[in-house]
Amino acid sequence: MNKWISIAASAALVLTLSACTSDGTDGIDGIDGVDGVDGTSITGTDGTDGVDGVDGIDGVNYSVVKDFGKEKENELYIKSLEYFGFDGAKKDGFTTNVMRKDAKTAADTIDLADGLTARFLTREAANKADLFNFYPAENPTHIISCIEGGVETLANGKLNPSVQSWNLETGEVSTILRGMERCDGLRVTPWGTVLATEETTDGGAYEIIDPLNVVNHTVVDRANGVIEDENNATATNIVKRTAMAQMSWEGLTVLDSGVVIGGDELRPGTGTEDADGGAIFKFVPDTVRTTTDLITDLSQSPLVSGSNFAMQVQCKDGTSQWGQGCEVGNARWISVNGENARADAD
């Protein structure tokens, strides 16, 4: 089997580190000299006043400004052969947007460094494919991805694809699930299932077991989590995890213990001008996972039941101060109701 290497590109965080960026403190002025002592006789002359002390010397400016992100960018460029196996890494991003319909070859869509080649794995994936995960985690044979589109009835009468699999050898595409609203958060869990989430106000989470043998299942009722298989029977390989927070899921991680941490994509000022933005939520299962075994039934998943929490960041020890200006500091987890997680976190 060919080896598959995935290099995920993410936005670079540039940190500016400043140490003593202001001038050094001025030296303290010297102390005035002591007045001379008066003469002791009637005709004696007063002693001469002492000379004022010399002013202290201004402190030295030890300002140091360092762009950590730029240093690492240059290092990756210089050592691309050592780190990644190819030379001549690109220093600038691709500035031209290429429409899918206009691309004839892979080279039309991507600006490659010297020594790299590309080919299309498939051109049959649905529009707005996103969040690509290799499956299974060990020795993957497929990619499983979200399709970030709204609920839509297609010309064939079916709802839009929401989760698809791509065969890494043949490029064959199979639709696993339809009918989700903007699938935009997907992870292969440590226990072998797939967790797919929705990026919308009442976004839910759906867990899929044995995904490579699941075809054309459909969410027919999002609110109540009703899912049917390709024969219109109640699905047994996919379930909506109603114990988890409803939110506009945007990025998540699944820990070995079954804990799930995800962010809510809610723009500040949505609805009202002073409305808060989305929180970071954590789901803690009632039964924390302690094994490394893969599950064989969805009832064995740690996502069956649990509690939800929202992160509250405080910028002052011992005092409850949070909000604008206090986005960095100590944090604690506040219990929230999963169904009303956004309102509870506000």
Tell me what you see in this structure.
By secondary structure, the protein is mainly beta. Helix content is 6%, strand content 27%. It has three helices and 17 strands. The chain has a six-stranded mixed sheet, with no helix packed on it. The chain has a five-stranded antiparallel sheet with strand order 13-14-15-16-17. A hairpin with a 6-residue loop joins β3 and β4. The longest helix has 11 residues. The protein starts with 15 loop residues before the first strand and ends with a helix.
Count of β-strands: 17
- Rg, nearest Å: 31 Å
Please report the number of helical segments. Answer: 3
What share of residues are in beta strands?
25-35%
Distance between the termini: 50 Å
Oligomer: single chain
Helix content: under 10%
Shape: globular
Strand count, sense and barrel status of the largest sheet are:
6 strands, mixed
**Helix/strand structural class:** mainly beta
Mean pLDDT: 81
Order of helices and strands: EEHHEEEEEEEEEEEEEEEH
Lateral strand order in the biggest sheet: 3-4-5-6-10-11
**Poorly predicted runs of 5 or more residues:** 1-28, 39-43
Task: Annotate the secondary structure layout.
Elements: E1 16-19, E2 64-67, H1 68-78, H2 80-84, E3 129-135, E4 142-147, E5 161-167, E6 173-178, E7 183-188, E8 194-198, E9 205-208, E10 217-221, E11 226-228, E12 238-240, E13 249-254, E14 260-264, E15 280-285, E16 306-314, E17 330-336, H3 341-345
Parallel strand pairs: 6-10
Antiparallel strand pairs: 1-2, 3-4, 4-5, 5-6, 7-8, 8-9, 9-12, 10-11, 13-14, 14-15, 15-16, 16-17
